[in-house]
Inverse folding.
């Protein structure tokens, strides 16, 4: 019997991975010790990780499972 739900277990696993990546990115931005967060962590590394987290979320939403299974 084919499921009519739009997301599968893999979609939800990818969404959780994306959320964890977002949390890590925002945490890295918040621990920057430079004035007003203008250091490497706050301006470069953190935003790149957050961007990767949003990319994972978009992929998780758009991912379609194999209809043959």
């Amino acid at each position: 019997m084919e499921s009519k739900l739009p997301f599968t277990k893999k979609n939800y696993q990818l969404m959780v991975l994306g959320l964890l990546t977002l949390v890590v990115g925002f945490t890295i931005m918040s621990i920057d010790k430079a004035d007003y967060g203008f250091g490497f962590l706050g301006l470069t590394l953190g935003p790149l990780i957050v961007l990767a987290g949003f990319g994972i979320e978009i992929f998780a939403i758009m991912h379609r499972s194999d209809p043959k299974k």
About this structure: Residues 9-62 form one domain.
